Amino acid sequence: MKLTFYKYQGTGNDFVMIDNRDLKISKNDTKLVRRLCNRKFGIGADGLILLENSEDPQDDFKMVYFNADGNESSMCGNGGRCLVAFARFLGIVENKARFTAIDGPHDATVKDGIVSLKMQDVKDVSQNKDFLFLDTGSPHHVIFTENIATKDIKREGADIRYSDRYKDEGTNVNFVEGISEDSFSVRTYERGVEDETLSCGTGVTAVALAAYSSGKTNSERVKLVTQGGELFVDFKKTEDGFSDIWLSGPAEQVFKGEIIC
Ligand SMILES: N[C@@H](CCC[C@H](N)C(=O)O)C(=O)O
């Protein structure tokens, strides 16, 4: 079978996108997803996203996300932003969208090439001596440190991801360095890619909330500088956590193709 696909990237976090409204791709085909994401034997991407019809009549579409290892995973922030750009390209939405992902419903807007995605509220931020841990749709271990430019993110990230603390479920790991009062540089090791990616949307969201929780910023708008570009996270601190969390940045179509599978 010949499969039409699109390739998108959001600050260098890259995804294969498939319009699966006709359900031609099975969610259980781990081998196929892994091959399509493989950079030598397939198209190459950090993850693959199926755009499907949603069961919820309030939605414009549904997001089904897989990591490059072929497994369906938790929420992908950059992937969600790219999917909104894809839905706009397909003519499903214009400048506003609502869709359901594995962690629930999301609103999104598009303006001047910037896709903003509303994330789920976050209640629990666990603060430990050397790190913070929180779930922004996906689990994130956040370490504020120095000299992140010279770190071996793959090795240091894998040590934490496979440590006894996270056991089989694993975690994503973010290494963060302050730039100014309201901006931070971030490098992320991603679970399911098992390597550093150029950017992680749920990761920078976690970093912004972790920075606020630990008093490293007083701003409810934080700029995050990733290896692949800049993202912004806006939020409101509430009595019991964070709400109105918006992740914003560019999301672009890179190419369209056909692959035999
Ligand atoms: N790149 C993503 C995160 C994708 C999920 C992650 N790899 C996991 O399995 O937890 C993002 O932009 O949020």
TrEMBL record:
<keyword id="KW-0028">Amino-acid biosynthesis</keyword>
<dbReference type="InterPro" id="IPR001653">
    <property type="entry name" value="DAP_epimerase_DapF"/>
</dbReference>
<keyword id="KW-0413">Isomerase</keyword>
<dbReference type="GO" id="GO:0008837">
    <property type="term" value="F:diaminopimelate epimerase activity"/>
</dbReference>
<feature type="site" description="Could be important to modulate the pK values of the two catalytic cysteine residues">
    <location>
        <position position="140"/>
    </location>
</feature>
<feature type="binding site">
    <location>
        <position position="67"/>
    </location>
    <ligand>
        <name>substrate</name>
    </ligand>
</feature>
<dbReference type="GO" id="GO:0005829">
    <property type="term" value="C:cytosol"/>
</dbReference>
<keyword id="KW-0457">Lysine biosynthesis</keyword>
<feature type="binding site">
    <location>
        <position position="13"/>
    </location>
    <ligand>
        <name>substrate</name>
    </ligand>
</feature>
<feature type="binding site">
    <location>
        <begin position="77"/>
        <end position="78"/>
    </location>
    <ligand>
        <name>substrate</name>
    </ligand>
</feature>
<feature type="binding site">
    <location>
        <begin position="201"/>
        <end position="202"/>
    </location>
    <ligand>
        <name>substrate</name>
    </ligand>
</feature>
<comment type="function">
    <text>Catalyzes the stereoinversion of LL-2,6-diaminopimelate (L,L-DAP) to meso-diaminopimelate (meso-DAP), a precursor of L-lysine and an essential component of the bacterial peptidoglycan.</text>
</comment>
<dbReference type="Pfam" id="PF01678">
    <property type="entry name" value="DAP_epimerase"/>
</dbReference>
<feature type="binding site">
    <location>
        <position position="172"/>
    </location>
    <ligand>
        <name>substrate</name>
    </ligand>
</feature>
<comment type="subunit">
    <text>Homodimer.</text>
</comment>
<dbReference type="InterPro" id="IPR018510">
    <property type="entry name" value="DAP_epimerase_AS"/>
</dbReference>
<feature type="active site" description="Proton donor">
    <location>
        <position position="76"/>
    </location>
</feature>
<protein>
    <recommendedName>
        <fullName>Diaminopimelate epimerase</fullName>
        <ecNumber>5.1.1.7</ecNumber>
    </recommendedName>
</protein>
<comment type="similarity">
    <text>Belongs to the diaminopimelate epimerase family.</text>
</comment>
<comment type="pathway">
    <text>Amino-acid biosynthesis; L-lysine biosynthesis via DAP pathway; DL-2,6-diaminopimelate from LL-2,6-diaminopimelate: step 1/1.</text>
</comment>
<dbReference type="GO" id="GO:0009089">
    <property type="term" value="P:lysine biosynthetic process via diaminopimelate"/>
</dbReference>
<keyword id="KW-0963">Cytoplasm</keyword>
<feature type="binding site">
    <location>
        <begin position="190"/>
        <end position="191"/>
    </location>
    <ligand>
        <name>substrate</name>
    </ligand>
</feature>
<feature type="active site" description="Proton acceptor">
    <location>
        <position position="200"/>
    </location>
</feature>
<feature type="site" description="Could be important to modulate the pK values of the two catalytic cysteine residues">
    <location>
        <position position="190"/>
    </location>
</feature>
<feature type="active site">
    <location>
        <position position="76"/>
    </location>
</feature>
